Amino acid sequence: MNTQQKQTITIETIVHAPLEKVWDYFTSPAHITQWNNASEDWHTPTASNDLKVGGSFSYRMEAKDGSFGFDFGGVYDAVEEHALIAYTLGDNRQVTVIFTADGNSTKVQESFEAETMHSVEMQQAGWQAILDNFKKYTEQH
């Protein structure tokens, strides 16, 4: 039995947009395919999202040159509209996303359990890059 405590990584950003827009852009597949990448040489050609407790989501993430790709997905454990999303990834790691309105801006905070293949710093940088891309996309559209 593995008794090792999983390390939790937390990232956040302030999106200069109203909560309702931030929620919609974060959860709508039409928008997810536009922002869900950590660098310009990656993209998300398809995304599906059944945003309810017990519902699942799947984002296909691929290198634009076709050299590598994977499905990022899981099942929702909790959904509180405009406030919180919690889900379990396919490898049983837990993720929580909290949305907090502050006037015409919205704080998005993600906490996720680290996996063991990549360094904590690399995981934090990758997830933060995706969240930063989400912020940029949401503010520009």
TrEMBL record:
Domain Activator of Hsp90 ATPase homologue 1/2-like C-terminal, residue spans: 17-138
Gene3D superfamilies (UniProt xref): 3.30.530.20
Pfam families recorded: AHSA1
CDD domains attached to this UniProt entry: SRPBCC_CalC_Aha1-like_4
Similarity section: Belongs to the AHA1 family.
Protein name: SRPBCC family protein
